[in-house]
Amino acid sequence: MSTSRRQFLKMIGASAVIGLGGISAFEILQPGQFEASQLSKNPEALVGKRWGMVIDMKKLDNETMQKCIDACHRIHNVPNIDNPKEEIKWIWPETFEHAFPGMESKYMSEEIEHMQFLVLCNQCDNPPCVRVCPTKATFKRADGIVMMDMHRCIGCRFCMAACPFGARSFNWRNPRPFIKEENREYPTRMKGVVEKCTLCYERLAKGLKPACVEESNGALIFGDLDDPNSEIRKVLREHYTIRRKSELGTEPSIYYII
Amino acid sequence: MLELAIKGSRRYWSWVIFLLAIISTGVISYLYQFRVGLGITGMSRDVSWGLYIGQFTYLVGVAASAVTIVLPYYLHNYKKYGRIAILGEFVAVPSVIMCMLFIFVDLGQPLRVLNVLLHPTPNSVMFFDMIVLSGYLFLNILCGWYVLGAERKGVPPAAWIKPFIIIAICWAPSIHIVTAFLYQGLPGRHYWLTAIMAAKFLSSAFASGPSLLIIISLILRKFTRFDAGWDAIQTMAKTAAYFLIATIAFYLFEVFTAFYSNIPGHMHPIKYLFVGIHGHTKLVPVMWTCTLLLAIALPILIIPKARKNEKALGFAAVATFIALWLEKGISLVVGGFVPNPFEKVVEYWPTLPEVLIALGVWGIGFFILTILYKVAISVKEEVIFDKYGERQIRAE
Fold first, then answer.
1. Is the Cβ of A235 closer than 8 Å to some Cβ of chain B?
2. Which of A108, A132, A164, B87 is the most exposed place for a label (fewest CB within 10 A)?
């Protein structure tokens, strides 16, 4: 059963030739495809300089909101854990006083006071979570999306302490048994890592808008905040909007019309 | 010199075996956590740091406090500390190791811990914390071990060690300042967002550290022939007294800022800690125990007559050590997370496995401390007089 050094070297040489030949064969049969799929972007991908979202609370009813939440959690394999201490959520409802603490007042309209606001990661311009991460597992893309690298996260949870919006969840246990129906097109997570909304970067790459925007019947407007001619900027020009905890200087990219 | 650690009395070995038992329980509990995840702890989405990070924060202070002994000895030539300088340095070593272990057991993905080195991130305070902690560990092992070796040979330490001792003195506050920066630079965490966080950390460290050394010195007086010296113990007590006054004053400044400004976000954590919010009162007993212990310990440390009473002093040192542990090891971390960013109260209380793991890490710390002290004390029991002519052991 022993392999001599000579045989071993022959084997290595042969596999190298076959390996290279394999790639060139691929090149001949489908020219350009091999590299194109690796290097160039999908031409249909949505491209923006600074992604943002407007949530129009006048148009968003509770039923639609639930549809947005369900769609997001379904396609991203967000586990459904009943225990509030361990729950994972990317997008969820909060009442005005909880979503905007400090902005509530004694005599505000009861309708707004009891209204459920849709909250998610604010995709801040100055994200404190990115600032504190010791491994760059959470980082900001050039288009403003605050990303999570689940493979690099060491689970120190410094980002959770730093996020003033409570937008991040931690996998206190293996989340997989809590996923009812797994979406095979999106990875599941393992225990011990932090996760959050990533503004459907994977859908943008395919030319699709974020799942919640698609489900919202026009109540959620997604677009490029840096483009003065975009729909989102038009909406922002026409309406008075508020952002969560803007006084903290994190510059959230999620705006609310009340 | 390490061979001195394997020759000991029956009492020494029972203590070592006791520690090993605690460590094993901790290791078994950790294996459970490693398999299941941090879900076995009392931490939650809202209180995402708990007992572990609290212990880390407290022990950084204990580690840094070695400087309260080493600095007067080396820089001010305070000879009374000659005998115990090494004990201060040897407290720092296990403390820093415990700090690192507490961070390690707090990680969700411990096998990826090297990512901190593989992807150095200077914008993260944690990166600097790693640097200052490992640097301080190295400096204390080097200085402590070398100086003790010289003492054993009966020669004065060589000149080359002096710069390292000076660097270690300057380095000590850095581990505490950087750890305070982990907390004090975070937006939206009102309880931590205060510029005197680092000052508070240093002052409480310089009160709890000497308290621990007083306790250790009194234990050593009782069970070994080594004597730290009554004057040295009294000076440490005075150090603890002054820094305890500063610590309490700093805390009251925070209370004033929060309540005179009347800003709800700043008042909420303090209210939660001392009286509870909406019936959530888990930490109220903790804070009042802390207050009570300090109220008893402070006068003992200040009033000369009380301080000179060995029993009272021992009690005051234990009370100070425990009280500051309650404040920094538990309530500081939780107070930052309660109420959460939605102004909702989610409470935290450690679970049994979490406590066992924490005890296990403390066990490892005390084990290393015991070994180092066994070596140091054995050397000092042989060498009757130090280089200043101070007698090291009690005249029987």
1. no
2. A108
